[in-house]
Amino acid sequence: MAKDDKVDVLAVGAHRDDVEITCGGTVHKLVQKGYKVAILDLTMGEMGSRGSAGLREEEADCAAKILGVNSRFNLGLPDAFIENKRENRMKAVKILRQLKPELLILPYPEQRHPDHRKTPQLMYDACHLSGLSKVETGDLEPHRPSRIIYSTSFLQFKPSIIIDITEQMDIKLKAVACYDSQFKPDPDKPVVYPPAFDINEFILTDARYHGFRIEKKYGEPFFVKETMMIDDPVNLSVRSI
Ligand SMILES: [Zn+2]
């Protein structure tokens, strides 16, 4: 995949499949709108109970093609042990300066998995550093993304915004279906999820719940730190009662 194209949007996950599961519908919607979108996975997934880093790379490439993203990168940080330290921040700075995204999609910082918590902290700090002209990265110019939204899918958290992904749900499920190593039932492999776990049901239920809240079939929820501006409160996009 292209390694030096400027993109409009960078969606970041700790592990291959995080972006697809939490915000794959939004990623595809942005592609459909004509934006150039890239995915950055911070680890290769070598600590997963199922599959291998090599297999998960093939699955990630499959999913990227289905979502239609411009490119997909991997920072190669140690799976399950992501640290927000200088060396890792600088790896992220180089990617930010290479791709020059305006919008970042990050995982919400309060989560059970340490990698999911560390990923947004690391990337937020890298965004700041990436804008500093005295932080040296050779030929790569300083660049700071101007907007960040945090995916809150599957978290018990009231989102700031919900994006309608009704039209994108089929593609989202197809992208997630690339990850056979993680989700395909197999009695010979270690049990990662409870026997009754069905990834499609999990995704559809969460998206249906959030879609219901905006009077659409399916939605993906996000948190935005900043206060939103509107011009016309008579035409708020949601009903109050
Ligand atoms: Zn993950």
Nutshell version of this structure?
The protein has helices at residues 18-32, 53-67, 86-99, 114-130, 169-176, 180-183, 199-213; strands at 9-13, 37-43, 71-77, 103-107, 147-151, 161-164, 219-223. With 241 residues, the chain is of the alpha/beta class. It is globular, with a radius of gyration of 18 Å.
Break the fold down into its secondary structure elements and pairings.
Layout: E1 9-13, H1 18-32, E2 37-43, H2 53-67, E3 71-77, H3 86-99, E4 103-107, H4 114-130, E5 147-151, E6 161-164, H5 169-176, H6 180-183, H7 199-213, E7 219-223
Parallel strand pairs: 1-2, 1-4, 2-3, 4-5
Antiparallel strand pairs: 5-7, 6-7
Helix pairs in contact: 1-5, 2-5, 3-4
The structure holds zinc ion.
Zinc ion (ZN) binds at residues 14-15, 18, 113, 116.
Instruction: Catalogue the unreliable spans.
Output: none
Bound molecules: zinc ion
Structure summary, number of beta strands:
7
Oligomer: single chain
Helical stretch count?
Answer: 7
Overall description:
With 241 residues, the chain is α/β, with parallel strands linked by helices. It has one domain: Rossmann fold. It is built from 7 helices and 7 strands. It has helices at 18-32, 53-67, 86-99, 114-130, 169-176, 180-183, 199-213; strands at 9-13, 37-43, 71-77, 103-107, 147-151, 161-164, 219-223. The model has no long low-confidence stretch (mean pLDDT 93). Zinc ion (ZN) binds next to loops.
